[in-house]
Amino acid sequence: MKRYLFLILCLFNLSLFAQENLLKFDKNFYESEDRWVAFPPNDEENKYMYGFIYLDNSAGFTFHYEGSFSVDSNGKFISDEKDKNSRIIRRLEPNTRKMAIIPDSKLKELEVPKIPDWLENYKSDETTETLVRKGYHLNHIGASTNALEPLLKAYKLNPHEKGLEFELSYAYNATGEFQKAVEVLEKALKNNPKDHMFYRELGYSYINLKKPLEAEKIFKKGILVSSDDSQKAEMAYNMAGVYYQSKEKSKFEEWAKQVKKFANPESQYAKNITLMENELK
Q1: Which listed residue, of 22, 43, 130, 270, carries a Cα 20 to 30 Å from 231's Cα?
Q2: DSSP code per residue over 72-88
Q3: pLDDT of residue 21
Q4: TPR repeat positions in this chain (predicted)?
């Protein structure tokens, strides 16, 4: 009896081992675009929720839920019939769990096509506009490294496409390539010197390049052209932070005054600047 029990346990463990090797839950959703994916099981039934990942240019990365499946002792994927008619769509956020890409060889077992017919409703010709939108969505979820590829492709086509220079410079700043961000933004400002977001990003680049005087000049210009108090407060706060760290009290006080002028009293900028003032005193 013990031998049979041992054999059953071995077969069960081998089946689990095969599943784990076939489904590697190591992919982020933005790495799984236009693929069928499965999420790790989170119940005692050992069922895997699965569906299709695609990019909706207007809404962002999306999970189209198809159903759930289990894996039998032979490693075959068995789709749950009761979920066949379920159609749930979920927008994906940065905290989405990692997932596994379902091998193409298993799609027949799940009775799903490699590319769903409805996907063409979300596909359009690759233009500078669609490339910028993809870069925007990738930046938005914190995947700026991945955003660089579509944004650079768009930049070659039309560097002054609406929103492009900001998204590209943002991606460069987010990935620590501050000098590249400067190069993009300087050209952007020559083309459009009234966009305060360019000044905001350029000042941030200069701060990280340890060029506070350049950052100060840029932030002053940005505050002059901006009509958005929250953006003015952010630029002033970033500059105040530089002088707080270097303990230059007079320069800090100059920029702290600007923060208080533009920031909502209940904002984190206003609260933090008060803490900094007390610390310096």
Answers
A1: 130
A2: -TTS-EEE-GGGTT--E
A3: 56
A4: 162-195
Distance CA(159)–CA(191), nearest Å, equals 10
User: Looking at the structure, do residues 66 and 131 belong to the same domain, yes or no?
Assistant: no
Instruction: Please write down the long-range contacts of 108-117, taking CB distance under 8 Å and 24 or more positions apart.
Output: 109/76, 109/77, 109/78, 109/79, 110/36, 110/50, 110/66, 110/69, 110/77, 110/79, 111/79, 112/36, 112/66, 114/36, 115/34, 116/52, 116/64
Tell me how crowded residue 268 is: count the other CB atoms within 10 A of its CB: 11
Q: Which helix (H) or strand (E) holds 55?
A: strand 48-56
Is 6 among the domain residues?
no
According to the model, what pLDDT value does residue 84 have? 57
d(CA 216, CA 185): 16
Rounded-to-integer distance, Cα 208 and Cα 179, Å: 9
Instruction: Give the domain range for residue 175.
Output: 124-227
The answer to whether position 86 is within a domain reads yes
- 103 and 171 part of one domain: no
Contact between residue 63 and residue 53 where contact means Cβ atoms under 8 Å apart: yes
182, 209, 227 — which closes off a domain? Answer: 227
Task: Look at the block and give the residue holding tokens 């000042």.
Answer: 203
The answer to whether 222 touches 199, Cβ cutoff 8 Å, is yes
3-state helix, strand, coil in the chain (%, to 5): 60, 15, 30
**Could you report the average pLDDT of every consecutive run of 10 residues in the chain (281 residues)?**
42 43 89 96 82 95 94 89 70 95 95 94 91 97 97 97 98 98 98 97 98 98 97 98 96 97 96 94 82
What integer pLDDT is reported at residue 43 of this predicted model? 67
